[in-house]
Amino acid sequence: MKKVSVACRRIGLAFGRTEVLRDVSLEVAPGEFFALLGPSGSGKSTLLRLVAGFARHQRGELLIDGRDVSALAPWERNVGMVFQSYALWPHLTVWDNVAFGLVERRVPRAEIKARVGAALETVGLAGHAARRPNQLSGGQQQRVALARTIVIEPQVLLLDEPLSNLDRTLRVQMRQELLAMQRRLGLTTIFVTHDQEEAMTTADRMAVLDGGVVQQVGAPVALYDRPCNPFVAGFVGTMNLLPVRVHERGAELALELAGVGTLRLPAPPAAPAGERLTLACRPHALRLAEAGAARDASRQWLPATVEASEFVGEFTRYHLRAGEHRVAVDEAHLAGTPVRAPGSAVLLGLDPAQLRFFAA
Question: Measuring CA to CA, which of 63, 165, 293, 334 is 20 to 30 A from 142?
């Protein structure tokens, strides 16, 4: 099957005075696994419904394979959509659920048999054809929904949070299976999720939306390492955001951190102009040391106090107080590692190469 692109050009949609999508422009490459990531109400599911044809935008163009499909009905677009609820017919068998779309299209019986069999084989349910949905696990129901969608041979596969109803272990397994299937079929796929881990582990590229506006588009590692603004920084992963005031600029950047004192850092070329900035740092990029211990000279060290800790398994997340600021630090956990007690005085080490700056 031919791989196709999907393009949104200045898409706009409003419900009354509420703008749901504002000048959304992005392009999904042929065969790409593309994620739409954002909080509830950001517009990501609405955008997916526009591509499917279940809603109509008021401004802009929506192109599939270079053709504007804005005026086409859903069944004329050759797209397939898997919903969060799966929407399986409870009174039909797995076979009949998967065959339903082909029967409606009046595909010859022999072709239906071949295509349904191939779709069930693809999702690993060839031995479950005679069962009904209530006889299946959540993961198996999700596979039926996928099979029902791919059996019609869509050019574009749309996934609206299809894993959100599964427990964590099954969700991890299913996203790996979903990605493997997408690679085998070569389907252009758009995946909506509010789960940053799902987006980062599956997508070739992703777009982060907030308030109906595309904040940033790029590969997961690019958005994680080089977020364009504080919202993306805090939504894609965890980020400490600290307000600072600029004292000096030059070969060094002298910054005042309220209640701590002055930080002197190599001036990064990307630091925005202005007297006030926001300093951003990931919890895992910070280091802790005992007061009075030997220090890594490549880091800037600040006095801090442990307020609380959370044991996550692979690491312990400490919540520190540094002057007037609360800072999260992730410290790798090894068996036998003692947990730092609340009230402990520590030194907080910042690596200048891992810091990012945003305009305040």
Answer: 63
Long-range contacts of 194-201 (CB under 8 A, 24+ apart): 194/37, 194/38, 194/39, 194/40, 194/44, 194/161, 195/163, 195/164, 196/37, 196/235, 196/236, 196/237, 198/35, 198/163, 198/171, 199/35, 199/37, 200/224, 200/236, 201/175
99 and 121 inside one domain = yes
Domains held by the chain: number: 2
Same domain, 214 and 79: yes
**Of the residues 235, 259, 282, which one is the last residue of a structural domain?**
235
* CB atoms closer than 10 angstroms to residue 355: 21
Question: CA 26, CA 37: separation in Å to the nearest integer?
Answer: 13
Same domain, 284 and 209: no
281-322 pLDDT per residue, tens: 999 999 999 887 777 888 999 999 999 999 999 999 999 999
Domain boundary among 214, 235, 256: 235
CB-CB contact of 170 with 203 (8 Å)? no
Range of the domain at 261: 240-359
- The predicted model scores a pTM of 0.90
Q: How far apart are CA 276 and CA 287, in angstroms?
A: 25
Per-residue pLDDT tens over the stretch 131-173:
999 999 888 888 898 899 989 889 999 999 888 877 888 788 8
Residue 253 Cα to chain centre, angstroms: 33
Distance CA 206, CA 218 (A): 6
Residue 201 covered by a domain:
yes
